TrEMBL record:
PANTHER family: HTH-TYPE TRANSCRIPTIONAL REGULATOR RUTR, MYCOFACTOCIN BIOSYNTHESIS TRANSCRIPTIONAL REGULATOR MFTR-RELATED. This is TetR family transcriptional regulator. The lineage of its organism: Bacteria, Bacillati, Cyanobacteriota, Cyanophyceae, Nostocales. It comes from the Bacteria. PROSITE patterns: HTH_TETR_1, HTH_TETR_2. It comes from Nostoc cycadae WK-1. The keyword Transcription applies. SUPFAM superfamilies: Homeodomain-like.
Amino acid sequence: MARKPKITNQQILEAARKVFLQQGFGGSTIEIAQLAGISEASIFKRFSTKEELFFAAMGLPERPLWMKELENLCGTGNLKENLIQVCLQILEFYSEVLPRFMMLRSRGSAFPEPCNRKEQGLMQDVKVLTSFLEREISLSRLRPVNAKIVAHILVGTLMNYVLSEQKPFSQTSFTTEPVKDFDLEHQPKVVFSFVQSLVEAIWLGIAPI
């Protein structure tokens, strides 16, 4: 007897994303399983809760890629260039997740409580970036400033940029493709120019004396 092809986590997430975008968090895991061609039990062998499945499908992992890479940048290289790189990664992350959550909000869909997260969304992003800036200040790579305010300015501006660039929902295509990393050498000029100008403006007030 021929063995059934093994389904990947990505295929499950694509099926879940389609159901959740259509029905919100109330979408059935049974329907997701049917769409993916597996049993409902198979879903919960890979994802411990429906909440975990939801956030993974919406592209909101426990720690986004930009947060993981941020940990390796502290105290190394050119800080201004590091900030440009981080902001580009944050912008890419928001461009993936914000349209999906805007679509759910527009339909009045309720959101589940995040699993194992004390903070979520903007609060979590600001806290992580604040911690990074505070460490750089302690290394005298930035002047003593209010790191939380700087983080709020950066994160808030990047989020607002993504929101302002979104097309009306009727014209927006919600991709199920995996998130792609930013390649700094091949960014659209307008996006790179925006991020570079943002960091340059902030840098005037935070550069080491």
